[in-house]
Specification:
With 143 residues, the protein is α+β, with helices and mostly antiparallel strands. The protein has a domain of 95 residues. Helix content is 31%, strand content 33%.
């Protein structure tokens, strides 16, 4: 009976070891949500192209300004954000509008780019954003 008990204990130890190993390998590492966005300007131009194209309006943009990515508390967690400001010129009804947007980043990539509704970008340190001024935005683009 002693050897049977020893085999049972050994079997339990082996089963526990196998279970522990399989748990560690089945978990995928979670992405770091606060990686500094490296291509933030390119991602913003591409996202604006998609958003404005979806509205079916040919638009030019002038006076584009952008901030550097900064960590800011969003909800309860820190996230990188970027503020963008520009003048949009639409062909429909010859509309011109001042626009301010805020971009939220997750794991180094643009997650959301929305118009501001309040003071989200108050006191932001803007710099010129010539890539957006030069970008072909809207349905009139040839490229």
């Amino acid at each position: 009976m002693g050897s049977r008990a020893a085999r049972l204990v050994l079997l339990c130890v082996l089963a526990a070891a196998i279970a522990a190993c399989s748990d560690d390998k089945s978990k995928t590492p979670e992405a770091n949500p606060n990686i500094l966005p490296a291509r933030y300007q390119v991602e913003i131009v591409e996202t604006l192209r998609e958003q404005i194209f979806a509205k079916n309006d040919t638009t030019s943009i002038t006076g584009a300004m952008i901030t550097e990515p900064i960590l800011r508390t969003v909800g309860t967690a820190p996230r990188y954000v970027v503020c963008v400001r520009y003048v949009a010129h639409g062909t429909a009804y010859n509309i011109t509008a001042n626009v301010e947007r805020i971009g939220y980043f997750y794991a180094g990539h643009l997650n959301q780019l929305i118009e501001t509704t309040g003071d989200e970008c108050k006191g932001a340190a803007y710099k010129p954003f010539p890539d957006l001024d030069k970008a072909c935005i809207g349905t009139g683009c040839k490229s």
